[in-house]
DNA sequence: ACACAAATTGACGACGCGTCAGAAACACCA
DNA sequence: TGGTGTTTCTGACGCGTCGTCAATTTGTGT
């Protein structure tokens, strides 16, 4: 005997999903300043007070979106860390995951960065901040784990005093820093930068080579493996363009 | 016959300097949300309307601070590009300049990042945005110039299809990305990262080595030259701590 | 059918933004 | 020095958004 009238509880959860959905939509297409509580209430055909039953303020909504975002990122990293072919292939797959993430889920990437700002972060609840921190922690752990396994396999030897996490920070920063600059620096082409994606692929390759992570690949080998990885590890995601066309 | 009563024009300029000064102070110590026009007016003992004679809105004040910031950065890069000892020493000096910048002028670094946000950037005048873009452009040009000279000297050969600017983007992203993560990711230590500065120094070294920029240095040589550079190129700035103590 | 609990509503006070008409300060000249 | 036109300053005001809460509606259990 299933309830013909859907449970109130489910109804509320459904609305919360829809709330985050439309919030993301507004954020991506119209920007942060357009994301007001009034607007959200209108869009969902409820009163403002109802929105406040879900989230205590606007910032917490953004953080909730960021948690979703980093969960998605983590699921991509999870897939990446299953790549066959040794640690070098796995760290490559992580790089591929990042490019897929930025290309296919621009709203998630945007929100992940938004939330770094003190004016948003500071107004959120500890509970949700912990959630975010934990996800971030797990992502880092996943990638650092790849580095650790590389060390265990003898494919990688880190300089004295550098932890795997600190090494991963370089890759993380290079990647997300580049994409961030790409997304926020207007007119990169006229500054001499054709494609941020190409720059990241090559930059990451040389950084990993610079750390002497075995095997060392050249650009063609690297590029070939990127596309192999895309197809085998991320069959459900749209495939990446060749390096020549950005 | 110098005017005993200072010119009104000067008085206004003086106030504008003071305005940016106190705005930076508030931003650094109390955060963006505390930076209100009312607050600034109070702090400067003027009426709100007077502030609006200087800047058309809050965002433009932040952008004006960012322009100051990037000018400071450029002056450090200028000094860096005079370093003796070949292109490898000059690019190292740029790295040193970045670390000095972040350590000694945290308010400037903060503001440079703040302004990347659409909600601020979009509300600013084209005139000042151009100013910002030009400064950024010049900074990039300076560093890319170092790479170009390295290529001319035969110290560096870039992979096919990669411009010097795109290579510099990797260094830029690694550096500013790391510092940004360091400044905004709470509890890095518990995530396994002791010192962002150390991570950046080592990451940059290996990335540059990875691009096969001659001469190749090991960690000790690199570290030694960092401190030489700090003293010879930036004698007026506080010197950098050894890599062991962050 | 009734009573209790939970969720919803929108009017409300507070606050910061940006404006603008009037007041004050200033510069210039006779 | 006094008069006049211009620049600068001022703060009260209108507006929009935030977050609250008492009143109301809706849901649930007996």
Number of helices of chain A: 11
Number of strands of chain A: 0
How many distinct folded domains of chain A?
A: 2
Largest interface: pair, residues per side: A-B, 62 and 62 residues
User: What is the fourth-level CATH superfamily of the largest domain in chain A?
Assistant: Tetracycline Repressor, domain 2
For the terminal residues of chain A, how far apart are their CA atoms?
56 Å
How does the helix and strand content of chain A classify structurally?
mainly alpha
For the residues shown, what is the average pLDDT of chain A? Answer: 95
Percent of residues in β-strands of chain A: under 5%
- Tell me the quaternary state: homodimer
Unreliable stretches of chain A: none
Query: What is the CATH level 1 assignment of the largest domain in chain A?
Result: Mainly Alpha
Bulk shape of chain A: elongated
Largest sheet of chain A: none
How is this structure best described in words?
2 copies of one chain form a homodimer. In chain A, α1 packs across α6 (106-114) and α4 (58-80) packs across α6. Chain A has 2 domains: 1-54, Orthogonal Bundle (Arc Repressor Mutant, subunit A); 63-245, Orthogonal Bundle (Tetracycline Repressor, domain 2), CATH 1.10.357. By secondary structure, the first copy, chain A, is mostly helical. The mean pLDDT of chain A is 95. Chain A has helices at 8-30, 37-44, 48-54, 58-80, 87-104, 106-114, 118-121, 126-152, 164-184, 196-210, 219-233. The interface between A and B is large, with 62 and 62 residues. Chain A binds a DNA duplex (30 and 30 nucleotides) through residues 8, 12, 36-38, 46-50, 52-53, 56-58.
């Amino acid at each position: 005997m299933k309830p013909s009238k859907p449970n109130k509880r489910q109804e509320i959860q459904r609305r919360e999903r829809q709330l985050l959905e439309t919030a993301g939509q507004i954020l991506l297409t119209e920007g942060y300043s357009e994301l007001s509580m009034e607007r959200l209430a209108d869009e969902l055909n409820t009163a403002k007070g109802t929105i406040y039953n879900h989230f205590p303020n606007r910032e917490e909504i953004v953080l909730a979106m960021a948690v979703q975002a980093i969960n998605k990122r983590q699921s991509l990293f999870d897939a990446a860390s299953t790549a066959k072919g040794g640690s070098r292939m796995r760290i490559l797959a992580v790089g591929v995951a990042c490019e897929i993430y930025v290309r296919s889920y621009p709203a998630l990437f945007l929100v992940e960065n938004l939330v770094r700002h003190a004016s948003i972060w500071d107004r959120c609840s500890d509970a949700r901040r912990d959630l975010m921190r934990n996800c971030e922690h797990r992502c880092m752990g996943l990638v650092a784990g790849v580095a650790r396994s590389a060390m265990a396999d003898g494919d990688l030897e880190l300089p004295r005093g550098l932890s795997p996490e600190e090494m991963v920070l370089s890759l993380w920063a290079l990647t997300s820093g580049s994409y961030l600059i790409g997304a926020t620096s207007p007119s990169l082409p006229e500054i001499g930068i054709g494609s941020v994606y190409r720059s990241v692929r090559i930059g990451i390759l040389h950084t990993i080579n610079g750390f002497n992570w075995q095997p060392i690949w050249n650009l063609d080998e690297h590029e070939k493996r990127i596309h192999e990885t895309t197809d085998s590890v991320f069959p459900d995601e749209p495939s990446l363009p060749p390096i020549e066309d950005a």
